[in-house]
C-alpha cells in the first residue's frame, strides 16, 4: 500500500472514530438538557460533519483505487516514511514533557541549557562541541533576560535555578 | 474626523511603534527567508508578549512580521528554488529560473517592488471598505450571523488546500475544541472529561502556538533527525556556489524593465486583493491565479516559466495583495478569513478588543493607527528590503538545527509566561500533538483555527436562531441575506474548485 493511501485511511479512521465516539458520548454521557437548545446541539453538528467528511474521503479513496487499477495515477514511496516521521515527532514532544517537568523541579535556566544542548546535538548535523556548549548558553541567557528579568514570570521553587 | 486622524497618526508614528514595526519587518523577512519557518509561526510565538506591550506597539510588531514574512518567502524561492512560504511557490517558477540565468538581483528587486505595490493596494482597499461593511454588519441578526459563520467555515474548509472533506472535518474539530468548558447557557461542563483544569475552556494562546509553532518545529525537527535536510542544505550550498564570479553591476533592474512588469503587478494586485478578501482562498491560490492571468495578458507569454520578470511580478504581487484584504472579514464581521487573520484576531482579543463590527466603533483610534501602520510597514519593507537585499539570501543558509530548539523552548516558556499557568503548557503540547498529526495526515490547519475562534459565536447564533424559530431548523434559511450567503458559498466553492483544477 502506498503512502497516500495509508495517510488517507488513517485520516478516515480519525474522522470516523472521533465522530462516532462523540455521538456515543452525547447519547450516554451526562449532558444538560435545555428546551429547544440542548448543550450538545453544536458538538452534535460537528460530529455529523466529521462522519460525513470521513465517508466522503473514503468514497474518494475508492474512486482513486479504481483509477489506479485501470493504470492511471502515479505510485509513491512506502508507508514507512510516515511512521518514521511520526515516531521522531513523538520523541520530540515526549522530550518537551520531560523539559517542562525539569523546569518545574530543577529550574528554568539549567533545564533550558540542558534541553537545548541535547536538541542541538540531535538535530544539527555535524555540530561542533563548542557550538553545542555555547549556543545553549546564549539561549538560556536570552530566556533569563526575557522571562525572568523583563516579564518576571513566577515559577514554583526548584532545586537549582 | 480630522481630530481622529491626528490622534491615530500620533499613535501610529510614535517612535516606539515605528521601532517595533522595523523590528517586525526584519524578523519577518528573516524567518520568511528560511524554508520551513513562516511569519505565521513568528506571530503565534509572539502572542504571549502582546500582553506586555501597548496595543499600537504590539500591532506594529505583528504587522511588520506579517509583511516582512510575505516578502521574505520570495527570497528563498528566487535564491534557491525553495519557497520560504507556501505563498511564494508561484514566485519560484520564474524567480529561480531568472537566478539561474544570472539575474538574481533583477528577480529579487522585481519581487520586492511588486510585493510592496500589491500590498499597498490591498491595504487601501481594506481601509476604504472595512468601515462601510462593518456598518452593514451591525444590522445582522443571529440568523444572518449564523449564515455568515457557516459561509466562512465552508469556504475556508473548501479552499484551504483544495480538500473539501478534510477541510470541513478539521473545521469541525476546531469547533469541538472551542466547546470544551462551561456551556454559556446552561452552565454545565462540556467535554471536560472530569478535568477541572478544562472547565474554563482552552485558552487561545496555547492552542494557536501548539497548532502553528509547535507542530511546525516538531515536523521540521523530525525531518532534520532523519537527515533529509542534509540533502537540502547541500543543494542550497551548491546553488549558492553558482553565484561565484557573478557581477552585480550587470544585474541592475532598469526603469524600462520595471515599467514592463507594471501590468503584471497590477493584475496581481487586483486578483490578490479580491482573493484575499474571501475566507480561505489564501496567498497560494492568489499567486497562481495572478500568474495565470498575467501570462494570458502578456505580450510575451512564452517567456513565462523561463525567468520572466513579469511572471515574478504577478506572482509576488498576487501573493502580497492578500495582506490587507484578508483583514476585511475580520474587521467587518469578526471572522478571520485566513490563518494570519485568525492570529491577529487572537491578538485583538488578548488586548481586550473584540473583532467584528463593534471593533471599529469601540477602538477607532487604535484601528485607524493600525491602518497607518499597515501603510508605513510597506515603506519599511521597501527600504529595508532595498538596503539589505544582498545579505538576505544568505539567511536561508542558517542551519535549522540551531534555530528549531530555540523556537521550541521559547514557545513552551512563552506560553507559560502568558498566564503563569501549567495547564496552558499541557494544552500547548496537546495542541502540538494534534497539529503534528494533522500535518502528517495532510489536513489543512487554517480551518481548525477558524473553527476554534468562531465556534462560540456560531453556537450562540445557532442557539438564538433555534429559539426564535421554536426549534425548527428551517428558520436558518428564512432570511434572504442568509440564503444569499449559502448560495454564494456554493457558487464560490464551485468556481474555485474549477480554477484549482485548471491550475493543476
From TrEMBL, chain A:
Membrane-spanning intervals of the chain: 46-63, 83-102, 108-126, 133-155
Top-level taxon of the source organism: Bacteria
Keywords attached to this entry: Membrane, Transmembrane, Transmembrane helix
Domain DUF1468: 13-156
InterPro entries, sorted: DUF1468
Pfam families: TctB
Protein name, entry field: Tripartite tricarboxylate transporter TctB family protein
Source organism of the structure: Franzmannia pantelleriensis
Upper taxonomic lineage: Bacteria, Pseudomonadati, Pseudomonadota, Gammaproteobacteria, Oceanospirillales
Automatic annotation (TrEMBL), chain B:
Every DUF112 domain range: 18-450
Keywords for this protein: Membrane, Transmembrane, Transmembrane helix
Protein's organism: Franzmannia pantelleriensis
InterPro entries recorded: DUF112_TM
Transmembrane segments: 12-34, 41-66, 124-151, 163-181, 201-219, 330-354, 366-389, 401-419, 425-454, 475-500
Keyword Membrane assigned: yes
Keyword Membrane: yes
Name recorded for this polypeptide: Putative tricarboxylic transport membrane protein
Amino acid at each position: 500500500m502506498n503512502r497516500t493511501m495509508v495517510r488517507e485511511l488513517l485520516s478516515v479512521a480519525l474522522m470516523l472514530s472521533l465522530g462516532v465516539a462523540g455521538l456515543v458520548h452525547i447519547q450516554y454521557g451526562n449532558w444538560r438538557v435545555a428546551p429547544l437548545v440542548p448543550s450538545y446541539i453544536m458538538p452534535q453538528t460537528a460530529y455529523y460533519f466529521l462522519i460525513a467528511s470521513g465517508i466522503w474521503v473514503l468514497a474518494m479513496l475508492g474512486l482513486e483505487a479504481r483509477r489506479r487499477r485501470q493504470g492511471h495515477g502515479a505510485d509513491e514511496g512506502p508507508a514507512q516514511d510516515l511512521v518514521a516521521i511520526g515516531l521522531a515527532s513523538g520523541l520530540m514532544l515526549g522530550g518537551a514533557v520531560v523539559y517542562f517537568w525539569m523546569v518545574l523541579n530543577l529550574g528554568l535556566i539549567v533545564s533550558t541549557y540542558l534541553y537545548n544542548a541535547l536538541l542541538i546535538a540531535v538535530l544539527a548535523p555535524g555540530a561542533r562541541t563548542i557550538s553545542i556548549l555555547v549556543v545553549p548558553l546564549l539561549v538560556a541567557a536570552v530566556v533569563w533576560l526575557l522571562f525572568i528579568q523583563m516579564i518576571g514570570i513566577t515559577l514554583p521553587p526548584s532545586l537549582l535555578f | 474626523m480630522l481630530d481622529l486622524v491626528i490622534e491615530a497618526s500620533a499613535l501610529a508614528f510614535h517612535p516606539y511603534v515605528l521601532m517595533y514595526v522595523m523590528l517586525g519587518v526584519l524578523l519577518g523577512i528573516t524567518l520568511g527567508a528560511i524554508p520551513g519557518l513562516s511569519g505565521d509561526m513568528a506571530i503565534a510565538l509572539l502572542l504571549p508578549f502582546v500582553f506586555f506591550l501597548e496595543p499600537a506597539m504590539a500591532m506594529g510588531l505583528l504587522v511588520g512580521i506579517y509583511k516582512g514574512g510575505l516578502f521574505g518567502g520570495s527570497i528563498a524561492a528566487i535564491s534557491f528554488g525553495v519557497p520560504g512560504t507556501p505563498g511564494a511557490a508561484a514566485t519560484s517558477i520564474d524567480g529561480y529560473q531568472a537566478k539561474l540565468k544570472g539575474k538574481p538581483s533583477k528577480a529579487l528587486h522585481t519581487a520586492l517592488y511588486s510585493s510592496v505595490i500589491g500590498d499597498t493596494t490591498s491595504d487601501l482597499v481594506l481601509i476604504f471598505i472595512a468601515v462601510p461593511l462593518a456598518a452593514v454588519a451591525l444590522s445582522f441578526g443571529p440568523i444572518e450571523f449564523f449564515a455568515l459563520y457557516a459561509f466562512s467555515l465552508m469556504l475556508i474548509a473548501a479552499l484551504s488546500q483544495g480538500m473539501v472533506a478534510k477541510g470541513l472535518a478539521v473545521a469541525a474539530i476546531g469547533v469541538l475544541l472551542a466547546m470544551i468548558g462551561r456551556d454559556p447557557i446552561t452552565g454545565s461542563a462540556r467535554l471536560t472529561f472530569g478535568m477541572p483544569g478544562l472547565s474554563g475552556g482552552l485558552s487561545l494562546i496555547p492552542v494557536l502556538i501548539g497548532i502553528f509553532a509547535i507542530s511546525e518545529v516538531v515536523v521540521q525537527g523530525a525531518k532534520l533527525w532523519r537527515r533529509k535536510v542534509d540533502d537540502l542544505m547541500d543543494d542550497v550550498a551548491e546553488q549558492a556556489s553558482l553565484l561565484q564570479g557573478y557581477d552585480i553591476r550587470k544585474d541592475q533592474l532598469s526603469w524600462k524593465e520595471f515599467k514592463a512588469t507594471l501590468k503584471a503587478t497590477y493584475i496581481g494586485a487586483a486578483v490578490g486583493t479580491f482573493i484575499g478578501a474571501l475566507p480561505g482562498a489564501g496567498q497560494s491560490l492568489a499567486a497562481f491565479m495572478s500568474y495565470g492571468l498575467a501570462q494570458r495578458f502578456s505580450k510575451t507569454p512564452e517567456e513565462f516559466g523561463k525567468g520572466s520578470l513579469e511572471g515574478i511580478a504577478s506572482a509576488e504581487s498576487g501573493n502580497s495583495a492578500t495582506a490587507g484584504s484578508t483583514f476585511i472579514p475580520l474587521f467587518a464581521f469578526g471572522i478571520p478569513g485566513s490563518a494570519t487573520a485568525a492570529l491577529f484576531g487572537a491578538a485583538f482579543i488578548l488586548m481586550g478588543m473584540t473583532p467584528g463590527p463593534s471593533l471599529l466603533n469601540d477602538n477607532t483610534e487604535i484601528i485607524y493607527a493600525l491602518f497607518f501602520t499597515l501603510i508605513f510597514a510597506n515603506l519599511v519593507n521597501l527600504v529595508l528590503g532595498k538596503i539589505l537585499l544582498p545579505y538576505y539570501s544568505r539567511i536561508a543558509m542558517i542551519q535549522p538545527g540551531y534555530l528549531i530548539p530555540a523556537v521550541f523552548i521559547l514557545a513552551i516558556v512563552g506560553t507559560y509566561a502568558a498566564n503563569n499557568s501549567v495547564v496552558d503548557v499541557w494544552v500547548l503540547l496537546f495542541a502540538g500533538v494534534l497539529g503534528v498529526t494533522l500535518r502528517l495526515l495532510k489536513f489543512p490547519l487554517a480551518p481548525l483555527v477558524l473553527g476554534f475562534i468562531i465556534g462560540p459565536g456560531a453556537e450562540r447564533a445557532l442557539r438564538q436562531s433555534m429559539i426564535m424559530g421554536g426549534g425548527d431548523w428551517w428558520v436558518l434559511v428564512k432570511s434572504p441575506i442568509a440564503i444569499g450567503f449559502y448560495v454564494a458559498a456554493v457558487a464560490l466553492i464551485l468556481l474555485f474548485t474549477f480554477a484549482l483544477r485548471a491550475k493543476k
